[in-house]
Every structure is written in structure tokens, then in C-alpha cells.
Amino acid sequence: MKNNTLSPKHGVTKFASLNFFSPLFICFLLFTAALILSGCKDDDDDTSPDVTKLVGTYDVEETDMWNDVDNYTVTISKSKDGGANIEISNFGDFMFTPVKGTIVGNTLTIPSQTFTASSTIKISGSGTLTGNNLHFDYTMISGGDTFEYSCEATKQ
Predict the structure, then answer these.
(1) What are the pLDDT digits (tens) for 95-154?
(2) CB distance 88 to 54 below 8 Å
(3) Cα separation of 156 and 147, whole Å?
(4) pTM for the whole structure
(5) What is the mean pLDDT of the chain?
(6) Looking at residue 42, what is its pLDDT?
(7) Which CATH architecture does the domain made up of 48-155 adopt?
(8) What is the residue extent of each domain of the chain?
(9) DSSP codes joined into one string, 54-119
(10) Mean pLDDT of 6-21
């Protein structure tokens, strides 16, 4: 009768065999490749062309929630933070500190941000760039009161 027990030598040989590892090895390689590729940054995430087309000086016509109109100029520049980040100077014709925003594609986002001087002001908003025209709406909260504005801006 034949002895079916494996000797340690036979087990090591079988375990080290490429045929034994083929399915396991291939799965391991695919899993590793998937992990590596998922960590790669997609070149489509480069927003510098979006920022470049937005940068400039704009004439703004701002309409408040009571339909009063104000005209002023803002300057939009690239942020030192890079990426899709921009800064808007003279925002609302009352901000001495630039308001931060982002542009991805043609969509402007002004994330909620708080400024403190003699009082606390919270600003947030969004907009759309179409050619040389930027439409954006923003909300300002000051002293517990909420104010809404709609702006049409034309690049100079």
C-alpha cells in the first residue's frame, strides 16, 4: 500500500511551485496594481486653466434683496494655495481682506468663511462663468441678520 503522507521536502517543493502560486500570485499582482493605480492623481484634476480664465478685474453690478443696485470693481487673482483656489479683492465693495473661492470648470464656489473686525461677518456663495461674464450670488450674515446679493460681473 502506498503511503500518502507528505514529507517536509515534498511539501516545500509543492508550496514553492509556480503552478501552486499562479492563481494566488496573479490575484496578488492585480490587487497590488489596483492599489497603486487608485493612489495616482488624475491629470484631469488640473484646474489651472479654469483659474487662468477667471483671473482679472471685473466691473460688478450688484443687486441686493431690496433691489438696490451698487456698482464697483473686484479683482480676482490666483491664490498662493494653488490648485483651483482664487482670491477676490474688494468683494462686495466693503471687504478689505480678500474672499477665498474656487473655480472648477465654469463653476465658482465661495465657501463659507468668517471675518472679524468690529463685528463678525460670514460670507458664502456660488456662481457661473460664461465667457467674460461672471454671475454670482452670495449671502452675508452679520449681527444675526442675513443679506442676499446677486451680481453680474464683466471682465474688463
Answers:
(1) 989 999 999 999 999 999 999 988 899 999 999 999 999 999 999 999 899 999 999 999
(2) no
(3) 27
(4) 0.69
(5) 84
(6) 46
(7) Beta Barrel (2.40)
(8) 8-38, 48-155
(9) H-EEEEEEEEETT--EEEEEEEEEE-TT-TTEEEEETGGGT-SSPEEEEEETTEEEEEEEEEESSS
(10) 55
